[in-house]
Structures are given as structure tokens and as C-alpha cells.
Amino acid sequence: MANRMVWNGTAYFGAGAIKNIPEEVARRGFKKALIVTDKDLIKFGVAKKVFDVLEEAGLAYAVFDSLKQNPTIKNVQDCVAAFKAAGADYMIAIGGGSSMDTAKGTGIIINNPEYADVRSLEGVAPTKHPAVPTFAVPTTAGTAAETTINYVITDEEKRRKFVCVDPHDIPQIAVVDADMMSSMPKGLAAATGMDALTHAIEGYITPGAWELSDMFSLKSIQLIADNLRAAVNDDCSQAKENMALGQYVTGMAYSNVGLGLVHGMAHPLGAFYDMPHGVANALLLPYIMEYNADYTGEKYREIARVFGVEGVDKMSPAEYRRAAVDAVRQLSKDVHIPQKLSSSM
Amino acid sequence: MKEADLEALTESAFADVCTPGNPRKATKEDILALYKEAF
To answer: Are A175 and A137 in contact (CB under 8 A)?
Structure first.
């Protein structure tokens, strides 16, 4: 069996990486951007960092910020209309998964108008054309939506979230700049960091995982285990930079091999209660790791190892599985994630 | 979160596109039990 891996064509990493956007725009001959972001990122001056870079380079842009967390069908429809009204020829998505997913759905519909009914994109819609070229600038660490081929839209009427999987939606350019994430409130940094850990663990134990995806998943688990506490609790800039990388690296794996029951159970919590996706994943992760433990071969031994648990080679399967679940639960507690659904809303 | 919603949440999670990627094949009963445990 052949394994397919889909990744960004171009990606930048490191504090200050957004300064490279104008050169990439010029190289591609783009004329006008639609910036897709949310109102909080405008209010707190995060999106402005990109606006300043564009203005300094004399690049034209319009802004769409009418989207909510767990973006809806209407958000995508409005963004499509905004793209047309602006006369834009590319997008810059600035935000967490909500901004990037809205941009993905929009970019697909603009270039594949037969899918203008957003619901028709659910699952693996066989679109014919790549989406509108998009720069993705994540502001959380994170969903890795900048390097995944998936996006999730909420159908408010039917009270459900639906997942769309389409290699045509992957952003052309990812700009993973830790300075764009530095003003995240602690609660958001904790939830999105645990979301990234969930991606890494589910992408590591899913039956579609293989050597190459495991390489990314395991490195990601290690980066998050080593850095999430300091990034959230100590405001450490090096730890934040490492989290920015860790959340991206897991996307290179899970986007291509799949996830699991944590996501399956987290999506309804988003649709029913508008619970932030990161919180839902973070809360469910230890329970479902425990449930899956006997179906994961030796993989929990490696998870325990990269979490720094000593003596894993001498442990029985029951011992290393216990150790892996305990290590994840401890990290979740240390960054103050609620441990029960009843206390989380 | 309301306990009365648990059945509907379970149906939705069972049908979710991410669920088949789980290494252990989950039944609706399993999912309901996990929601209750987390609740």
C-alpha cells in the first residue's frame, strides 16, 4: 500500500517570520489580499502586525473579520462574498483554526463554484481545482490548520460540526511566527497546546500511522511535553517558540493519517455548547487514552519515554501504559485544564 | 452541559468522520460511558 503525504509548498518558522510575506507575494505576482481574521485579533493588535508589514511594502488588502469560534456555514458564505467584493486574488488567514478553516472553505468555493452549498463539501468532496492561494499565519499553538488538508464547519441549524478533507485546501504558504502567538491568554495557550498534544497522540496511535508520520508525531509529543508548562505558566519565549514548532510538526502527520475518538467526541461538544475545540480535546484526552490503552502495541512506551518517564524499557505493557496516561493527565493538570465536563462550562 | 444531551452527543460522536481513526473500535455504549465518565 502506498502512503500519501500532503504538506505546504513553502513554510517559514521563527520569531519575525511574517516579514517574509511581501517577498512571497511579489514572487507569486499576487495583487490584493483578503485578510481573514477575527475581531479579537483586530482588537488586541495581533492582526495589525501583519497589516503593518503589508502597508510598509505597499501591498493592497481588505479585511474580513465576521467569524466566530467554531465557524459556521454563514461565516464561510459571508467570507466568499467578501472575497468577491474586495476583488482579491489571494488570502491571508490570521488566527487559530477558526480563521484558517473559514479561509479554506472560502478558497475552495471561489475556485469550485459548483460547491457553493457549504454542506456539499462535507467528507471528501472531489473538487477539481486548488483553493485560492492562501498564506496561513497561526496565532495559537495550536491547531496546525496551516498545514492540514482538513477544515471543520459548524452547521448551526443541524447542531453539528462537519469535517471536510480535501488536499486542494492546503495553504500554499505557512508562516509560523511565535511573535504572532505571544499575546495568547494563558487559558487559550493551555487549551490549544493540549489540542496539539491530542493531535500528536491520536495521529501516533491511529491505524493509518506509519514510520514517517510517527517520526513527526513523536517529535511533536516530545516538544509539547518539554515546553507546554513553561510556555503557559512561565511565559518563556523559547518554550513558546518550541510549542509553535511542535504544533506544526504534528500537523504534518495527523493531517495525512487521521485522528480518533477524542476528536470524534470533541466535535459534538463544540456544536452543542460552542465549547472551544482545544478545551474539549484536552479534557477528553486522558480518558480516551485510558480506553485505548490495550489497542496501542508498544506506542505508549514511546509516549512515556518522550515525557521523560524513567525505566520504561523495564516496564510491562500495563505499567508503561499507565505511565503514559498519568504523564499526560499530569501535564493537563499542570496547565490548569478542567478535568470534568461538568466543571468546564 | 446537560446530562439529558448525552444520547444525542453519543449519536453525533459515533457518526463523526474522525471516530473511525480510533485504534479501538468504539460502540455507542462505549462512547456514552466515556462521556459519563468525563461528565
So the answer is: yes
